[in-house]
Structures are given as C-alpha cells and as structure tokens.
Amino acid sequence: MAIVGQGNVATHLFRAFEGEAETVHVNSHTLEGIPHPCDFILIAVKDDAIPLLAERINDALKTYPTTTLPVVAHTSGSTPLSALTPYRGAKGVFYPLQTFSANDILDYREIPFFIEGEDETTGERLSRLASLISRNVHMADSSVRKELHIAAVFACNYTNHLISIADRLLQKSGLDYKVLMPLIRRSIGKLDHLSPHEAQTGPAIRDDRRTIGSHLAMLSDTPALRHIYETLADSIKQEYSPE
Prior knowledge:
It is a single chain. By secondary structure, the protein is an alpha/beta fold. The protein folds into two domains: 2-140, Rossmann fold, CATH 3.40.50.720; 146-240, N-(1-d-carboxylethyl)-l-norvaline Dehydrogenase, domain 2. 43% of the residues lie in helices and 12% in strands. Strand 1, helix 1 (8-17) and strand 2 form a beta-alpha-beta unit. The protein is elongated, with a radius of gyration of 22 Å.
C-alpha cells in the first residue's frame, strides 16, 4: 500500500498501518516509490489537489494492466468521489473523522472511518483495510460525508477557535487558559450521558440579560468578539425558547 502526502493525515495513517500492512510513504510532488504490485493508494493531500493528483497517478501507472491497478482512495470528508474521475482504476474514499496534529498520540482503533467505493466490491475492500486499524468503520456516500464534515467543523474547529478566544481574553488578566481545562473536560465529559441539548448551561439558556449585557459591554472595544458572543447567545436563546 502507498500513502501519498506529506501532511498530518498522511503521517498519522502511515503510523497507524505500521505493523498492520506493508506500507510506503510517497511524496505527492514526485510520486516516486509507488510499489508494484500495490493493492491501495491513499491520497492524503489538500482537497483542491486531489483531481490533479489522481490524473498524475493515472499517468504514473499507465503501463500497468487494468487488472493489476490498485484501488485509489482519497481521505477528504468534503470532496466527492468524482474528484478521482481521472484515474482509470477502482476508486473510493477513506475518510478518518478526526483532527490530526503532527505530534499527537492517538488511539487509531477509536477513530471513525467513513468509506465509499465506486462499487460494492471496492467499498468492501476499503472497509476491510480500515478494519485493520479501527473498530469503528462505516459506509457513507459523498452527501453524508459533506454533512459529517460540516458537523465536524462546528464541533471541533470552531470549538477550538472559541477556546483560543478565551485564551486571549484571559491573557489580559495574566491568566493561563489551562485554568479552563477542568471546565472544558467536564463540558465534554457530560456528553457521555447527556445529549448536547440537555447539557447546555450558561446565561443565554437562562435568558440572563444582565449578565449578557455586562459581557457585551466588556467586549465593546472588540466588535468582532462582541458579534460572535451575541450571535451565539441569540442562537442558544432561539434553540431553547418556548415554541
């Protein structure tokens, strides 16, 4: 198997498959070192680079008989399977629903993988591949993955950005954001036994206008943060307002 890419996703996938499958890490710029024969090529690059890379892989393997071509799959949540159209062999998607940072230590067995194949056989092959490293494997077509990706951006990327804002606010008072970690862990931990709707707390759900007004006044010198605060407070109030 070959994993193409130099970023965090490619690096973690290579680590995950070490000891589970014979795997090589291939530079996406040169494509040197793709083994032959090869069962799978996983493309882990920026979304807009996937179609061109699929075409370049097709060119690199143009002398291979069709019957020996590997399955080529990309790892993007928001990119459709059709992005691999330039490749003449079997195509699919191998999407790990996780945030990857270079030096993180992850339990790959817990990571959900969402699989799509251009046909049932390809999907089954990719599912078996994912099962080598994860016990959390699902089938999902392009439309489902787009919904997953939007949800993941809200749950992960935007949540982290909000904690980054909290960090900047605390720095003004000489405090370290790590004083928030017990609160953050508890907020996430509650979701093991409560739905997000049930777990919501804070001044917006209580319609505590005095506290909200005080916070907005404190943010008056930073209009962008005031807008974020007000938008989120309004969204919470709307969700919990009586029908």
